[in-house]
Design goal:
Number of helices: 4
Radius of gyration: 22 Å
Number of strands: 19
Bound molecules: zinc ion
Helix content: 10-25%
Structural class: alpha+beta
Strand content: 25-35%
Oligomer: single chain
Distance between the termini: 35 Å
Largest sheet: 8 strands, antiparallel
């Protein structure tokens, strides 16, 4: 695996030469170690997958991808910024969600654009399979996702005993739902909510899981069978449900909260006996894809790089008429060593 290659796995093709930018992201990450919120960004992975179902499982997608798009960082001609989604100083792994174990290495493009250098089409004979609850990219607003997030926000703290020791994060995924993650006593929990629009009703399904990452051993231990529940469909069309919610006229909120409390309580109950070494309860996932991160190229600096750009001065600015001048290779720099460079 080359350090300088990132990938995206999608249902629809990205053409060679096409650019992706931060607004292509269908999710909002409202959690980070430094308290910053990432509202826009495009997810990429440092991993390469052999099958579509492997990509789905490790990236916790709700479909098997048809295409693999490759972005070689050496071949980019603009400056861009890549970030660990949670602003941590260590590599981040995809949270389990929607019944999938996750575990791939993820990174997000938060500024600039990246040009697709290679497209692998037909690589996956098992691509193009949609889950029953799957992301609908045509959804115009994400009101329901945000509403579900608020509901979860009110329900999760009721169940969590020790709020102090917790890390709480969320991803809002447009046209699908939300994922909430928290940690307690070295165990991680995730609760995903997805909705599906039917003609005169909206279906809601929840998945809960518990996991422990043993990164040195490259293993994830996860509840062998996620806890899943689908509640009775809400008897409204998507539009009328959103209207009711907007006006504060949705009266069955308590039922929704109760259903969530049940699944969270179940999760808490199982977590008491959950242990990575229990083969009956835990399933071992190989994190066979090592996470490599860009370290700052400034001599002596070991910070994680957020920007890939040209070397910093002292560096002779190229003269526009010097035909022998060649673009220097892109190098990673951290926030402290990021710099302005010359534009002609
Ligand atoms: Zn640095």
């Amino acid at each position: 695996m080359s350090l300088n290659v990132l990938r995206r796995y999608t249902l629809n093709p990205i053409q060679v030469g096409d650019f992706i930018e931060k607004k292509d992201m269908q999710g909002i990450i409202e959690y980070s170690a430094d308290g910053n919120i990432t509202k826009e960004g495009t997810f990429l992975t440092l991993n390469s997958f052999n099958t579509a179902s492997e990509a789905r499982d490790y990236l916790a997608l709700t479909y098997t991808p048809n295409y693999e798009s490759i972005f070689s960082l050496e071949n980019q001609d603009q400056e861009f910024e890549l970030k660990n989604p949670y602003h941590l100083q260590s590599p981040s792994r995809v949270w389990p969600a929607f019944g999938y174990h996750g575990g791939a290495c993820e990174i997000i493009l938060t500024n600039g654009v990246l040009k697709c250098t290679t497209l692998q089409k037909g690589k996956f004979i098992d691509g193009g399979v949609l889950d029953e609850f799957t992301q609908d990219n045509t959804k115009k607003n994400s009101f329901l996702e945000i509403y579900l997030n608020i509901i979860l926000e009110t329900v999760i703290p009721i169940i969590i005993i020790d709020m102090e020791s917790n890390v709480i994060g969320r991803k809002i995924i447009k046209g699908l739902g939300i994922v909430r993650m928290w940690s307690e006593k070295e165990k991680n929990f995730s609760l995903s909510c997805a909705y599906k629009e039917e003609v005169e009703s909206v279906r809601l399904k929840f998945w809960g899981t518990i996991w422990v990452d043993a990164l040195k051993q490259m293993k994830r231990y996860i509840l062998a069978k996620p806890i899943e529940t689908e509640i009775d469909p809400l008897p409204y069309s998507y539009e009328s449900l959103v209207n009711l919610l907007r006006k504060g006229q949705y009266n069955e909120e308590q039922e929704l909260k109760e259903a969530l409390k049940v699944i969270i309580s179940e999760l808490k109950e199982v977590s008491k006996s959950f242990s990575p070494n229990d083969p009956g309860l835990a399933k071992e996932i190989s994190l066979k894809y090592p996470c490599k991160y860009f370290r700052c190229s400034e001599p002596g600096c070991t910070a994680m790089a957020t920007t890939l750009s040209y070397p910093s001065p002292p560096y002779p600015p190229p003269m526009p008429f010097d035909s022998n001048w060649e673009m220097p290779p892109l190098k990673p720099y951290c926030k402290n060593h990021a710099h302005v460079f010359w534009i002609y």
